[in-house]
């Protein structure tokens, strides 16, 4: 599974600041947000609305996490741009 992900992995080091680590976390969440959006679109084409609802719920939860982390960083959430 790990070799197939597009989420960048960082070794456990103490040389990164908290804002750098949070920004990295946001990047990973944005990747997941894009995957969920793709799932929403595909499930719509396939008329699989139960699965689409699941993807919508997951995407909504990720967007909330992005919003909260971006707020901690003092940045706009930049969701749906």
TrEMBL record:
Classification via InterPro entries: Ferritin-like, Ferritin-like_SF, Ferritin_DPS_dom
Keywords from the named record: DNA-binding, Oxidoreductase
Residues covered by the Ferritin/DPS domain: 8-75
GO molecular function: DNA binding; ferric iron binding; ferroxidase activity
Keyword DNA-binding applies: yes
Keyword hit for Zinc: no
EC number(s) from the headed UniProt entry: 1.-.-.-, 1.16.3.1
Stretches that traverse the bilayer: none
SUPFAM superfamilies according to UniProt: Ferritin-like
Protein known as: DNA-binding ferritin-like protein
Taxonomic lineage from the root: Bacteria, Bacillati, Bacillota, Bacilli, Lactobacillales
